[in-house]
Amino acid sequence: LFSGVEQAPPDAILGLTEQFKADTNPRKVNLGVGVYQDANGKLPLLRCVEAAEQRMVATPTAKGYQAIDGLPTYDTEVKELVFGAGSPLLAAGRVITAQALGGTGALKLGADLLRQVSPEAKVLISNPSWENHQALFTRAGFTVEKYRYYDAQTKGVDVDGMIADLRAAAPGTIVVLHACCHNPTGYDLAPADWQRVIDAVVDGHLTAFLDMAYQGFAQGIEEDGAVVRAFAERVGSFLVSTSFSKSFSLYGERVGALSVVCADAAEAARVLSQLKIVIRTNYSNPPTHGAAIVETVLGDPELRAQWVEELGQMRDRIKQMRTALVEGLVAAGVQGREYITDQVGMFSFSGLTKEQMQRLRSEYAVYGTDTGRICVAALNEGNIAYVSESIAAVLKD
Ligand code: PMP
């Protein structure tokens, strides 16, 4: 049966981690992963999460099945976080939200739903994009193409190129957009640029799919949510995937959600009925624990305030590390890297070539992806000088 099955290539990022683990250099630094680490290089357990879990342990519940679309109170909290508690769309019953297995699970639910609704549509993702976008939408049956995004010359977004590509797209084309903290580049659109994107989406009858994997990591929870609100004001139907992997440091719990904005409440009910079939035929219903943690935190004013504070600390530490990296590079003799502080989120497109990234790995045991992406959230006081000096060394010769 399986004799003809070919060996699939290893996952690029996980492969890098394997290589990192096997590296015996005591100074090794892993900047390849997409995981936030604290000032001590540790994956944090947020205090709000710990407190929520303690409450849950104190009041144990039986482990029944959840509803197909997940914990209802969780879905409501997510809606309010993403669209704003006072959103007229929520009041009109135009938004459906289903708990999903992380941001990836949310994207896959959305992809499967869209494939059913518009099987002929193409998908456009940014160039470059999170590598799983291409694979996930391809697996869902779509042809995936790219719109221009990163401009290596200006170290920013090629907004005109992006808009031109969106305007050239056929009606119904699905456009995957990073709502904030673009992965891998770290460059986001300015509010005025987002209006141009929305113009292109509305004029071209495109289907926008906002991937929100880092709400709160760019400017703040409300500020980052503004992109979704801007779409809500002007676009009739669109999708939003949410991930709490980073913002709650709940990676392995697989907590996310898919929200779908519909024309009216009746349409929303019909779409939800179809989405439930997608879920039911994949994994029947989602797990309880992670969503219960998030729901407990968001539903309790004290824990929520603690979360806002802890998320702010993660965001601020990343910003400090960006500044420290630029300063460390200057100290090591490398000028002109101020653009690193223009970027937001966990990642930085360092501007290094594939060869330089490979030398960083083989000669200095500093691991980033071949694209030049490094995880700023993995930098700390203990490794930043070494990383800066290593980057300076591969840039010099
Ligand atoms: N979208 C983007 C842009 C991401 O960077 C990630 C995580 N690396 C995801 C989605 C998936 O998030 P999750 O781990 O919650 O599945």
UniProtKB/TrEMBL annotation:
Transmembrane segments: none annotated. Its cofactor is pyridoxal 5'-phosphate. This is Aminotransferase. GO terms for cellular component: cytosol. Belongs to the class-I pyridoxal-phosphate-dependent aminotransferase family. One of its GO terms (molecular function) is pyridoxal phosphate binding. Keywords: Aminotransferase, Pyridoxal phosphate, Transferase. PANTHER family: AROMATIC-AMINO-ACID AMINOTRANSFERASE (PTHR11879:SF37), ASPARTATE AMINOTRANSFERASE (PTHR11879). It is an enzyme of class 2 (transferase). Its EC number is 2.6.1.-. PROSITE patterns: AA_TRANSFER_CLASS_1. Residues 27-391 form the Aminotransferase class I/classII large domain. Homodimer. GO terms for biological process: L-phenylalanine biosynthetic process from chorismate via phenylpyruvate. CDD domains: AAT_like. InterPro entries: Aminotransferase_I/II_large (IPR004839), Asp_trans (IPR000796), NHTrfase_class1_PyrdxlP-BS (IPR004838), PyrdxlP-dep_Trfase (IPR015424), PyrdxlP-dep_Trfase_major (IPR015421), PyrdxlP-dep_Trfase_small (IPR015422).
